[in-house]
Batch of 3 targets.
Target 1
Amino acid sequence: MATLRDIRRRIGSVGNTMQITNAMKMVSTAKLNRAQTAVRAAQPYAEVLRQMVTSISAGLTGDDHPLLTRREGGKTLVVLFTSDRGLCGAFNANLNKLLLRQLMGNAQMTDPELIVFGRQGNEFFRRRGYTIRQSILNAVEAEKAGHIRKVLSASREQFIAGDVGRVFLAYNHFNSAINQEPRVVQLLPIEPPAAAEGEPAAAASRDQRETLFEPSREAVLDQLLPNYLENQCFLAHLNTEAGEHGARMVSMDGATRNAGEMIKRLTLQMNKARQAAITKELIEIVNGAQAL
């Protein structure tokens, strides 16, 4: 049975842990507010860009632009966004498991190689024997934009050259602090978003015929499609940042409440043990007095 000293020591240890988890919750709350603002600020531009790609790329083929070229077989490149640190619940595990199921069960993902942002995804897939082409770990915020541009530029060139057949993007979409949705979406070849949303192909083709390009359709596509890809990756990064802070805030809030409940139980146990010790001493005193 634990002694009073052991219980007091345990209460102190849990109390220190509760202070740490509460501080982490407050830090994540502050970071979440900034990350949420960044996601909301990026949404209008992303939506307009998506609509432009929907309108212009409808009815086009690989002959119109190399980023639209569909290939059978070949290597699959996956750009994965996870966090560097843990203590954020199932935020990383849900995405890693979803991507693992896709890699094992999707016939389109042949001969996969990964480019991983974040230590959690890197360790998960390295332990399972997947080829990690590049890992970007513990990068500061100011450097991440440059890393994303370099990765996307290299992936685009490899796709155009035919070294890579498909490029996928895996990330957690931020819905709210308590809801992050793991997603695996195709980046290359670019597919018109309208097709994925079920919009009528005939209407899209009619809009394409009525569109006038200045200076030319090729020049517009050369500027628009790379910007669309870059925007998709940056939006995935922003969603991952916001989702990580939201998941950690919720996780640390739960840990803080659990620590408080544990302290209450340990305090009750300590009071009972102290009362038992006092009762035992009184009984010994009474028995000694009666013996005299």
Target 2
Amino acid sequence: MGRRILVVDDSVVAAQQITAVLQAVGCEVVGHAKNGAEGLTLYNRLRPDLVMMDLVMPMMDGLQALRALRGLNAEVKVIVLSSLGGVESKATEALRMGAVAVVTKPIEAASVSQAVERALEGKV
């Protein structure tokens, strides 16, 4: 089972936290993009098994990027990262658009690990 993951988050601190958690559960973080547009470019180049993507980013937000990723590959597995305040409707919309899970910030190792396992094993 593949465990190559692309992290898309405009916050360097959040990306570092996510990367540390992913590595601790045996995943390889193959890249980090700072916005959705950069995420699309890296996705095309790296073809990761899973994308972990923030919803709120400059230039191209997580919903726009999710829509574009699904257009490139209908089977893409995306876990969206969401702050607790004010973006619940965006998280719900992301799930409707095909995201496999939503993980809330602040990042907790157990919730990330469980979401990744479910996504990569197809148990969503």
Target 3
Amino acid sequence: MLQGLIFDLDGVIVNSHPDHRRVWRTFFASLGRQYCDDELEFVVEGHKREDILRHFLGALPDEQLKDYGARKEALFRASTPEPETVKGLHEFLQQAEQAGLPMAVASSAGRERVEYTLKRLQFRERFSVIVTCKDVQSCKPDPAIFHAAAEGLGVQASGILVCEDAVNGVEAAKKAGMRCLAIAANGRTPLLHQAGADKIIPDFTAANLAELRTLFI
């Protein structure tokens, strides 16, 4: 039976992918690199920042990775307005809270940005557990981040519903032995279906907790 929920951050809690694409494009342009929209889809598939930098720029020394990561994060904060939640999220969280379900966040984003974003939304107290890639040896599509979140919630993997929007995240959830609700925007349903999502919806206005419980029967 459904006993707990784990949420990704970007594209699930906050509608931040357009901002990330824009900021990454600006950052790469500052280095003299230009990438098309299709190439920039890589940045929204659940990869951590260091892996994104290596993917586009090749092998980089650790100090340069750290410097570039800090520059991208500073650019993001300076040029991004107040975070906007994914449509229907508030109501869905209320359903979960009324049902007494514990909730966690498991994100490839850095802890500082996760905490910062949740506090700006006044959501921090709604999640009893936060796990980032810095807390595990391997990140998505490795299932370690979801196992760590489930352990923090005190819930077995078989009782967890993961809310994801990235291929890497869906694959990680399924490898962890969890059910996965995928949030599919901009025609991404086929990709998330292929990754193994148990149910796919456009946003949380289509999420009904009673219906989602049937995934665990």
